[in-house]
Specification:
Structural class: alpha+beta
CATH superfamily: q2cbj1_9rhob like domain
Number of helices: 4
Helix content: 10-25%
Number of domains: 1
Shape: globular
Radius of gyration: 15 Å
CATH class: Mainly Beta
Strand order of the largest sheet: 1-9-6-11-4-3-2
Largest sheet: 7 strands, antiparallel
CATH architecture: Sandwich
Length: 169
């Protein structure tokens, strides 16, 4: 089931995450999807860059989740900051290997023609879409929905920045 939470991150935590990512963007600490993802998820996608966050930030994010969702309290979390390059996307998939998956949007100035939309199939198999909204969180939990991210256009006005979080079974 897809649930959307507006303003999930506090302004302070959002600023801390963005400051951390800017401070570390020039360091050699990035992973890329083409090496790390299941090939079926990326097909011919351009790279999606990922970076682990500092433990103090991860703890704050985890606390937000466990305060809101008590059932996640003693679970392991995988948390990464992601930057979608132009021409990157993620194919249709279901996250069944995890208890829950979510995306927190960090792009302040999303432009609707830049791509990077979150599409999902509802319980009737109808495709629905969400535009990235700053500080909002999309949660895919319980009766998980098949979903994808549409291709980011070749020259986006803004990069698609997110926190991806997976709760392990």
């Amino acid at each position: 089931m897809i649930k959307i939470f507006d303003n999930f991150l506090t302004s302070d935590l959002t600023s801390e995450i963005l400051r951390y990512s800017k401070e570390h963007c020039k360091k050699n600490i990035w992973g890329i999807s083409n090496f790390n993802y299941d090939p079926r998820l990326i097909e011919s996608s351009a790279p999606i860059f990922s970076m682990k966050m500092h433990d103090s930030i991860n703890k704050k994010i985890k606390r937000l989740y466990t305060d809101k969702f008590k059932e996640f309290k003693n679970k392991q979390f995988l948390i990464e900051y992601k930057v979608y390059a132009p021409l990157s996307y993620i194919t249709w998939h279901d996250d069944d290997r995890y208890l829950a998956g979510s995306t927190i949007y960090l792009s302040k100035d999303y432009y609707k023609n830049d791509g990077g939309l979150f599409l999902y199939k509802d319980k009737n198999n109808v495709i629905k879409g969400l535009e990235p909204k700053f500080r909002s969180m999309v949660l895919n939990y319980k009766d998980k929905n098949e979903h994808c991210v549409t291709m980011v256009v070749p020259g986006p006005r803004f990069l698609r920045e997110t926190i991806q979080l997976f709760v392990e079974e």
